[in-house]
Amino acid sequence: MSKASEKAYRELRERLLRGEFNPGDRLVEDELATLCGVSRTPIREALQKLANDMFVQQIPNRGTYVMEISETDQEDLFELRAVLEGVAAARAAKNADEETLALLDKQVARIDEALSDSDGYQLDTFLDANRRIHSLIIDMAGSARLRVFLQNLTEQPVLIGTLQRYSMANLKRSNEHHREIVEALRAGDSSWAQSVMVSHIHAALHSFNREK
Amino acid sequence: MSKASEKAYRELRERLLRGEFNPGDRLVEDELATLCGVSRTPIREALQKLANDMFVQQIPNRGTYVMEISETDQEDLFELRAVLEGVAAARAAKNADEETLALLDKQVARIDEALSDSDGYQLDTFLDANRRIHSLIIDMAGSARLRVFLQNLTEQPVLIGTLQRYSMANLKRSNEHHREIVEALRAGDSSWAQSVMVSHIHAALHSFNREK
DNA sequence: GAGAATGCTATTGTATACAGAATGGCGCGT
DNA sequence: ACGCGCCATTCTGTATACAATAGCATTCTC
């Protein structure tokens, strides 16, 4: 996927995440084309990709519609993510190398620092470091397929924004989980790593539900 | 995805599964277009879909290549499938309704019949019933995402043909697993259903490795 | 006045033409 | 003779033109 398609994809994805389109809205290719400043061809490619990500739904000969997400869908998402990230953590424990572990330590420390920063904790730093941590672990698991699946899961509209509602206490606990996971990985204990990771994701769901 | 795109997708997918293209081969859009009797546009859509299915790999400005599958990839596939189908079975146990359970019984019986048929067991019947069983269970789990993921997993080139190598004994054991899973589902016992399902998939991997 | 059928319009699906990027070969220079 | 660079060819990426389909409204008939 090259320049124009990529641009259209990013643009539309961004707008979908921002909620600029409402669930159920029809997306007309021509309008999107002018909106993104490209022709319909790359728009169609972008829409196909978005359909794969389950951001939109394509109905043959009838158009593309913004996906409507149900109540249960969100729990689905978390459950699947918990299971798969659990598997990733377990596998990562077997493949752990000190180099990557050091990188993980660094990200955990970054979050510590951001959270202890008294003039308002820096959420962006947390989000970035958090993303990197999970990404590194998934990479350590060494399965391309797992990576693809989890990427799909973590980039869902329902989830974006979720993290932003965490309270300070939850963020701190979240990072304690990270620390424990890294410890488990370093110990090469896959059950430990897996179970902490599963807890970690479930805790996130719980926090979210309580605070929304 | 409509007529021509669909046709191209099916055609190419079929050929890929048949092994008509070798891993690493470059797929030139024009050639595929004449091969499928459509223009490049639907071919490009089909290729994008195939790339999502991880049948091919697209490199920007350089073309599309038939995916090369590594040794570990196959075990990955089975492991992920085991985990996800396990989750599906567990969830299905909670949602089980007698109507669907009856359909499952029917498919199990179909396989029994096919396997006891003395003039050569009918593999096609087994494959079809097997597919339906797994499909019904996934549907009972009631998660669209899970369905999509598992569909991707079960339709990989590595897996197609796997089932066809099973020995009679393995097929019989496989159906015993099916029977037990249905029993667990009927009992509403999600742990039981999950663990049998996981065993079921792992047994399949093992059979395959031994007989290849 | 109600229902069905037909034509109109808007939008998707497909083909083709054109532009730009990448690779391979050829020639030129050293 | 060997290496570097340029040109040509080939293929991908994008735009646009054309075809087909679905939904809607209008009209005609009963």
TrEMBL record, chains A, B:
SMART domains: FCD, HTH_GNTR. Coiled coil: none annotated. Residues 2-69 form the HTH gntR-type domain. Keywords: DNA-binding, Transcription, Transcription regulation. InterPro entries: GntR_C, TF_FadR/GntR_C, Tscrpt_reg_HTH_GntR, WH-like_DNA-bd_sf, WH_DNA-bd_sf. This is GntR family transcriptional regulator. The lineage of its organism: Bacteria, Pseudomonadati, Pseudomonadota, Alphaproteobacteria, Iodidimonadales.
